[in-house]
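TA notes, week 10

Several of you asked for a full example with nothing omitted. So below is the full record: structure tokens for the whole chain, then the designed sequence directly under it. When grading your own attempts, check the secondary structure regions first.
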């Protein structure tokens, strides 16, 4: 497989030309040090880390997997040394406050780093990524003492974090959580229960693992209203933030998984393990959403990371592998057959991968600006601004997580398809990408759960459609500016405007029908999410194309003329070949519920 190369040219196009990140950072309280020179140096350094250290471990790590013996997990060869380099380089603390040892840079800079790490080696990226949510949760809800105890080593990367929600009887339905937390005279709690599917829950990379755990207090209300949140370290932590004795948190086993084999997914047993409460009693789920939203954005990154990695593997193969002649005549007459890239269907697959990776990247980078603004509002105590950006990011989150992971799986499968039978063979690396990508649509809430969150909670109950109206107002403002432009840009703007209006129509029709049809939200939600995703990605493709056309016309960056032209051509492919899928999803979302619900459950079996 071709070696991974960080997509720096496309990243810089988005940062400097499309989204004006230098101006964005200049307006942030913590953005003063994020100068263009500093950001560029970070991008280059992260690219080197990913290309030279992490990517070479990806295939071997998958082949070896993690080793479990007597409650301990050993990561694949090379991972421990790579993690030591990662921590020593200060990469974990990029976006965390200087008072805890971080570099105090905006949150979005960690997003750029995480995307490259994910494309190079997703299994490795998860060890570092789970810690980010742990740190964010303690920063947001921890006491001053908890912050002093836990944050310095977490920010330094010498300790790591994990999120402990799932139990054998419940995944998404956290109302069924049974883990108990019994208060002790000294103010601590003893937690007992078993958690499953805990990513990075046990490993040998860090000196300690800090578990963020959902559990119930004695006499707590039933359901999710009775959940509290606790910090439960693998090793107890002294007040001076040094490691103490072993806490009774033990790994019972690790899962044998389809993919991401180099990251340990643990079964954790809490046997009166000592923990401290974080946030208020019985309000643990609210605090946990800080962790979960961080993880969901990270999972959305997985969609584009695997699309990018699969595209990078498929493109050189399509250029080199020869099979048959192109339908329009010989392209490589000196050879017995033409390269795959001359075949229209292969180009369709490659362009689909490219459109998903680059369109999804733009969606993520736009959301990252909202995350920066949300963090600043929280730091400044500006509740009005905090709510504004929290609502906007909350609208993005299920679309990013649900849509981009589904599209990432498609891109990974197309990469295998370009290789044909060779794509099914491990040493090519393509089947690993497909296996690794598959989990992304399942964890942190399946696509169906994200869809219910979008349509049920965010659109219908939360805002009565206002979140859609607000976003499409932005889309329509852009479309009006380019509506009568000549050529491709004008055509894209008109197509985009029509679907933005249609998005509101679909939303209103569902809103009017839902009170009379209780199953409508469930039957329509995934199609609604996919429609939303295709239209949102279309907007960001149109924005990229318009900027590329503007820069080309101005004569600036003549050395980038080929890049800008290809950007416009890929946008045109998206609008003509992928965006029409939205129409089918829109139609399906409005279809009668009866066809979904009419078969009795006993009659599903074959007769």
């Amino acid at each position: 497989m071709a070696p991974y190369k960080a997509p720096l040219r496309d990243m810089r196009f988005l940062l400097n030309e499309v989204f004006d990140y230098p101006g964005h950072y200049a307006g942030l309280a913590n953005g003063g040090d994020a100068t263009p020179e500093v950001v560029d140096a970070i991008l280059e350094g992260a690219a080197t880390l990913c290309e030279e250290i992490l990517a070479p471990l990806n295939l071997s790590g998958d082949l070896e997997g993690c080793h479990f013996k007597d409650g301990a997990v050993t990561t694949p060869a090379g991972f421990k040394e790579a993690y030591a380099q990662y921590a020593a380089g200060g990469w974990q603390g990029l976006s965390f406050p200087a008072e805890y040892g971080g570099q105090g840079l905006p949150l979005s800079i960690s997003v750029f780093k995480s995307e490259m790490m994910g494309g190079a080696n997703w299994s490795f990226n998860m060890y570092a990524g789970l810690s980010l949510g742990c740190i964010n949760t303690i920063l947001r809800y921890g006491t001053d003492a908890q912050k002093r105890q836990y944050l310095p080593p977490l920010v330094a990367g010498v300790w790591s974090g994990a999120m402990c929600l799932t139990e054998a009887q419940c995944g998404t339905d956290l109302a069924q959580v049974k883990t108990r937390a019994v208060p002790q005279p000294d103010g601590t709690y003893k937690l007992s229960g078993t958690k499953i599917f805990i990513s990075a829950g046990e490993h040998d990379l860090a000196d300690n693992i800090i578990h963020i755990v959902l559990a119930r207090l004695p006499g707590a209300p039933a359901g999710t209203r009775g959940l509290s949140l606790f910090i439960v370290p693998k090793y107890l932590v002294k007040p001076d933030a040094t490691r103490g004795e072993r806490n009774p948190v033990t790994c019972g086993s690790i899962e044998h998984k389809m993919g991401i084999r180099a990251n340990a997914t643990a079964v954790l047993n809490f046997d009166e393990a000592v923990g401290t409460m974080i946030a208020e009693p019985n309000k643990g789920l609210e605090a946990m959403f800080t962790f979960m939203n961080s993880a969901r954005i990270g999972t959305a990154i997985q969609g584009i990371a695997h699309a990018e990695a699969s595209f990078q593997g498929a493109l050189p193969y399509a250029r080199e592998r020869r099979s048959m002649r192109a339908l329009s005549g010989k392209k490589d007459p000196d050879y017995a057959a033409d390269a795959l890239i001359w075949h229209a269907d292969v180009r369709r697959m490659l362009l689909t991968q490219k459109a998903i990776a680059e369109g999804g990247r733009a969606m993520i980078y736009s959301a990252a600006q909202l995350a920066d603004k949300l963090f600043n509002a929280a730091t400044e105590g500006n509740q009005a601004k905090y709510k504004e950006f929290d609502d906007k990011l909350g609208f993005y989150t299920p679309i990013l997580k649900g849509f981009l992971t589904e599209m990432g799986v498609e891109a990974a499968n197309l990469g295998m398809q370009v290789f044909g039978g060779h794509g099914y063979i491990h040493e090519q690396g393509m089947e690993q990408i497909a296996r690794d990508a598959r989990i992304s649509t399942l964890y942190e809430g399946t696509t169906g759960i994200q869809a219910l969150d979008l349509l049920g909670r965010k659109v219908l109950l939360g805002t009565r459609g206002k979140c859609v109206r607000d976003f499409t107002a932005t889309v329509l403002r852009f479309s009006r500016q380019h509506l009568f432009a000549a050529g491709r840009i004008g055509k894209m703007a008109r197509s985009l405007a029509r679907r933005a209006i249609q998005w509101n129509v679909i939303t209103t029709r569902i809103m009017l029908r839902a009170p009379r049809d209780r199953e409508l939200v469930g039957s329509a939600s995934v199609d609604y999410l996919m429609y939303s995703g295709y239209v949102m990605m279309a907007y960001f493709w149109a924005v990229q194309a318009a900027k590329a056309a503007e820069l080309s016309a101005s004569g600036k960056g003549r050395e980038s003329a080929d890049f800008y032209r290809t950007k416009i051509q890929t946008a045109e492919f998206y609008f003509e070949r992928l965006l029409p899928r939205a129409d089918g999803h829109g139609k399906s979302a409005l279809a009668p519920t009866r066809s979904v619900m009419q078969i009795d459950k006993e009659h599903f079996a074959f007769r």
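DSSP finds 19 helices and eleven strands in the chain. Use that as a sanity check on your answer.
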